[in-house]
Amino acid sequence: MTELYLTNSLTRKKEKFEPINPPNVGMYTCGPTVYDYASIGNFRTYVTGDILVRTLKYNGYQVRYVMNFTDVGHLTGDNLGDADTGVDRLVKAAKRERKTAWDIAKFYTEAFLKDFEKLNLTKADTFAKATDHIKDQMDLIKKLEENGITYKIPDGIYFDTIEFEKSTGKKYGELSTLDQIKEGARVKVNKAKKNPRDFALWKFSDPSEKRDMEWDSPWGVGFPGWHIECSAMSMKYLGETFDIHAGGEDLRSTHHPNEIAQSEGATGKKFVKYWIHGAFLKVDGKRMGKSLGNFYTITDIEKKGYGALALRYFYLTGKYNEPLNFTWDSLKSSQQALDKLNEQVLAAKTQNTRTSLSEEKRKKVDGFSSRFLEAVNDDLNTPRALAVLWDAMKSNIPSEDKYDLALSFDEVLGLKLSEVQEIKFEIPEEVGKLISKREKLRKEGKFDEADNVRKNIEEKGFLLEDTPEGLRVKTFK
C-alpha cells in the first residue's frame, strides 16, 4: 500500500506519517474567531484540514477530529505582532453591532457552520468553544503555576518563556523564528513583561469597564488569553500527546509555538507529532483585507452566481502549502470545470454498459486507483489527484467503472459527485432577451459590447458557453 507523507512544519521536512496508536489518529484544527464572517482565505485553511481528514480515512485510519471556536480572548493586537494587546475582537464587534458579545459569538458561529456545510467540509467529532472550557483553561494555568513558569503583572498572568527553557531543556519557538523578535518593533512595549516573547495566560478585566465575558479565577476577575484555549481543549479531547495539529500559516509565528510551550510546560510530554500549515490565499496577487476591498465571503461568491463547491474545486487546484491566487476568472474556470465534471459523472452514471473488463482495461482501472492514492498520499497533492480523475473520466474504460472511480476519489475531493443530477431550469424572459442581444452583437462583430452583455448575464446567475454544437446556457442558482 502507498504510504502517506506529510510536510511537518516542526521539522520542516516531508515525513512518512506514522500515527502514535494506529489505526487511531487524533487531529485538532484551529477554527475561527467568531466575531465576523469567515473569508474565502479562512476557508482555504479549513478545506485543507478537511482534505487531510478525508485522506486519513481513505487510508483506513480511524480519525478523532476536533475543531475549536474562539469566542473570547483573541485581541486585536495579534494583527500587529502582540496578541496580548488591543481589544477583544468579540467586544469590538459587539460595540459595532450594538449587541452583546454572547450574541455576536452565537450569530457568527452559526453563520460559519452554514458556510462549512456548503463547502461540504467533514463535521468535527467535537466543535469546542473556548467559553465552554473556562475551567479546563484555569486548571492548565494552575499546572503551569505549580511548575514555576508563570508570573503576575498588573494586566494578567503570563507564561515565562525563559523559565520554560531552563526547567524543561526545550527550545521555545521551534515552529517559527520567535527568537528574532525585537521588543517594540511593531507594538507598544509592555515593560512589565520579563521577556518580549512571554505571553498572557489570563488577562485581568479593566475595573472601570464591565465585560460581557469575564470569570472569577484564583488570580482575579478576567478572561483567558488567546493561546491557552487550544492547549486545554485539544488535550482534553485527544490526550496530552496526539498526532496532528493543523491551521493556517499565520498561526505558525506565535499561536502554535505558544501552544507547544504551555502544553509541554504543563505535562513534560511532547505535545503534537505533526504540524500541518496551509498557505495564504491571495486575491488578485495581493494579501486579502477589508481595507483593500478584496475581502470576500461565501455569500459574496454566491451573489456573483457561483456555487460554494466551485470555490472548493478552486482550492483543490493548488497545493495546500503553496500560495494560491484567487481571481474571479479563476473561480469562473473552476465552476466551468466542475460543471463539465458533473456532466461526465452524470453521463457515466446513466450509461449502464458494464461488461466484463478486458485485462487491458482492468489494468487501467487499477492504475487510476493507484495513481490517485499516490497523489493524495504525496503530501495531499490535490492538483495531481484532480488530474487523475480527469484522465479516468476521459479514458475508454466502461462508464460504470468511471462512475465508481469518481465516487471513490470523491471520498477525498468532497465535490458531492454522488449527488450529481441533471439540472433543469427556466431562463427568465429578461435573461433570454439579453442572450438574444448578445448573439446579435456577435453577428455584427461587436464583440466588446457582446462581452459586456455576457457579464451582465453572469451577474444574474447564468453562464454562457460557446461550443461547436452551439450556445449552451447554465445556471449556478
From TrEMBL:
The gene is cysS. Monomer. The lineage of its organism: Bacteria, Candidatus Woeseibacteriota. Residues 371-394 form the Cysteinyl-tRNA synthetase class Ia DALR domain. One of its GO terms (cellular component) is cytosol. One of its GO terms (biological process) is cysteinyl-tRNA aminoacylation. This is Cysteine--tRNA ligase. ATP binds at residue 290. It comes from Candidatus Woesebacteria bacterium GW2011_GWA1_39_8. Pfam families: DALR_2, tRNA-synt_1e.
